[in-house]
Design goal:
This protein has 17 helices and 13 strands. By secondary structure, the protein is an alpha/beta fold. The strands form five sheets. The protein has a four-stranded parallel sheet with strand order 2-1-3-4, sandwiched between helices. It has a three-stranded antiparallel sheet with strand order 9-10-11.
Length: about 500
Amino acid sequence: MSKIADLYIRVSTDEQAEKGFSQRNQEEMLRKYCSINHMEIRNVIYEDHSAKTFNRPQWKKLLVNLKKHKNKVDLILFMKWDRFSRNAGDAYQMINLLRKLGVEPQAIEQPLDLSVPENKMMLAFYLAAPEVENDRRALNTFQGLRRGKKEGRHMGMAPYGYVNKATEDGKKYIAPEPKAATQLIWVFEQIAKNAFSTESIYQMAKEKGLRIAKSNLWVILRNPLYCGKIVVPKYKDEEARWVDGQHEAIISEGLFYRVQDVLDGKSRTYRPKVRTIENFPLRGFFQCPQCERKLTGSKCKGRNKYYYYYHCDKLCKWRVNSEIANRIFIDQLNKFKPLEPVKKLYTAVLLEAYREHTGIIANEKRKSLEQISEYEKKLSVARNLLVTEKIEVDDYNLMKKEYNGIISKLEKQIGNADDDKGNIEQLMNTGLENLLKLGEACENSSLADTRELIGLIYPENFTFRENQFQTTRINEIVNCIYLVNNRFRAYKKGI
């Protein structure tokens, strides 16, 4: 009497893509085996789940069927034992369960007589071999990716702001995507200026066309890839580190580090998270003169129109009409406009200061680079001492941690020292021209630009007393211009 068999055909999607397994090929081989050995085929079961466990939909259905038709099937046939399972413990348990149901599992390409105890060792080998192969492949892939990162290459799909490209010889790389890169530059610059909360900046960026989730944006803001670095993660005794990337940076290192300081709270001042409507550009900067709390803004309906007020929500209930406050503020800004007759003097002074400053920066960069080179040599010496067993591993790890920490700080200092490669004299002239139109710029600019201007002039919050704006500190350059203006006017009057 011929034996009755169920054919079990399992292929996961990944296996089919990577190894070329196919359900059709397996079925043909199994049917041919049954034909040669005069076996009757009852059912053909197709499975597309992993063999890590037996928690597979079609396998569960097969077990229910076998229990319902106990002793009606003699064999379950499959190509290899890794089609059956990849876990030795689970496999032995399932084999015992199938035997209780009168069913013998068998791999036609790796036949085993499981009644022979020694064959259980072979079964363990057949089950483990594919897993070992997968682990080796995964390790090779991991090491390849890590090697690529050490070389400064971005591995995988391009992140937001970049696109995947390839050279004529097929070498892959990432390059900035102009539109998205421009959006990200704007976001980084706004964060660094610290005039708005990050939530507000995200909302404004969305209006400008940013098409990523808020959580993704926070990841981007922390990713040094955008300033031209590649992160090499910690692995075994190797500490995590950054290397210079082969891709083009979207932002400077200095801008990246300034953003990190803001996000870490090192240069953070309070800014409102709620979106400020056009009638309240001063909200978030404006303090109550009585209780020193931040003023909010609201409107109330009159007979013919709405009236807008800055007001305190606390017990003092202080308020001021927003139109009056905004107008007084514009008048205050106009006091800081440089006088036309001394504009050339400002340009000359600023240019000289810039040249002196850049000379100092260049010298600091040179010293930092020399120090980095020195500590890299020390790290190399320590590594050689470890190899020759002249120092212990713990001592080497302590030195490596200390030296890498110093190198990282020095690299950050270099990144913070940005060199302006543009025409600085032209930029200064443009800046002074804008200062001459300060009040006009504040009135006619967008809400975002207006608030940015306010934040630049007033690094700290201001209040309102006797129709005058008061603050503990204003921008040093703006204050100098104000003082020079007063001296010049006094000179002309002969005072």
